Amino acid sequence: MTVDRYAWAATGWATGAARVYGPLATQLVGAAPHPLAGRRVLDAGAGTGLASTALRGAGARPVAVDRSPAMLARDAATRPPAAVGALEALPLRDDAVDDSVAAFVLNHVDDPAAALRELARVTRPGGAVLATAPGATTAHRTVRDRIDAVAADAGFTPPDWYAHLTTVQAPLLGDVPAMRGAARAAGLVDVAVTEHVADVGVERPEDLVDYRLGQAHVAGWLAGLAEGERDALRRAAIAAVAPVMEPYRPPVITLVARVP
To answer: Is 79 left (phi over 0), alpha (psi -120 to 50) or beta?
Structure first.
């Protein structure tokens, strides 16, 4: 049985991590090479629905797929149709959607080109495949690392799967040539890949701390703490970040391509 690594993460993701990933999802949807209004668009790795929300804002008709039942269950009654499934084996027929969006999910797989081939398989010819992944540059991590240090001092140890994600999976798409190569290996055409430093509007220590503590790798550990302990951890993290806080600007690799 597959373990749901995000079983504890839905609330923190929707209320904390969304401070960064929500604006990034909106930016990705805005990069579409044609209007999405009225089109059926796959939100692959949908999580709690940040890209689905952006797609609805663009007039699209999203359908969501995510590996985590818990993430899909968040506000399920108000969300688009959804199915549990892996990016590497999407539970959709060939040519099922007009376009596909994969917001910060390709960096969670061991073979990004294979995942992109799956997106191409379920997307109709001529449809767009849009994806983002974190850039490999590290300057933005200095302040964020202070939050991680506070958690470590409180007894947190990252799970093995997170170490694999950060050291093995994420670097596979950490720069423009890598993303371009994966897209071309997947058979996509009109491949355009860019890297930019994203303005996500996170400028306060409180927002950065809530973003970082809202992520899945720390969610289960936080859930095991007493409420007072969680509150004390958040205060300590804010105090650690405040003296050096700058606007949080993560580097983002963006793919815009088309299915032939």
So the answer is: beta
